[in-house]
Amino acid sequence: MLKEIVEKGHYCFVEKVDSWQDAIRQSYAPLLKDNTVENEYVEAVIECVNKYGPYIVIVPGIAMPHSTEGAAGCNGTAISFMKVEEEVDFDPEDPDKKAKLFFSLAAIDHEQHIQNIQSLMDTLMNEDIVEALMNAKTKGDLEKIANQYE
């Protein structure tokens, strides 16, 4: 998964963001750039968080922005990675709802959506990978992690 993210250029590194909404928008920038998704999809993800709460923060420090599979504005299946140096706060009342790592999903159908999630979970089960990603600052760091662990 990480090698594919690097090869496709589906990653970015950001110092800080203005809001969690801005974080979601920036996390999808690599997928917007190659037309995997359109703005309509990104705004749907933000609307889902507004409606259902910060469900996308799957564990403290890690967010998995996504909407439903096959949502409008989704033209392909991919995962993008974003590292934010300054934690993004999704809920000031809950210290566990902060994130620095964003794995933003797009999938054109249910099967590919589940495959994306499974691939991501397999990666995140490895604490060494998560720690390395938390410390990553450059494309070179990301390439090194991908080559070391995949």
UniProtKB/TrEMBL annotation:
It is found in: Cytoplasm. InterPro entries: Ascorbate-PTS_EIIA_comp, PTrfase/Anion_transptr, PTS_EIIA_type-2_dom. Residues 13-145 form the PTS EIIA type-2 domain. Transmembrane segments: none annotated. GO terms for molecular function: kinase activity. It comes from the Bacteria. GO terms for biological process: phosphoenolpyruvate-dependent sugar phosphotransferase system. GO terms for cellular component: cytoplasm. Keywords: Cytoplasm, Kinase, Phosphoprotein, Phosphotransferase system, Sugar transport, Transferase, Transport. The phosphoenolpyruvate-dependent sugar phosphotransferase system (sugar PTS), a major carbohydrate active transport system, catalyzes the phosphorylation of incoming sugar substrates concomitantly with their translocation across the cell membrane. The enzyme II UlaABC PTS system is involved in ascorbate transport. This is Ascorbate-specific PTS system EIIA component. It comes from Holdemanella biformis. The lineage of its organism: Bacteria, Bacillati, Bacillota, Erysipelotrichia, Erysipelotrichales.
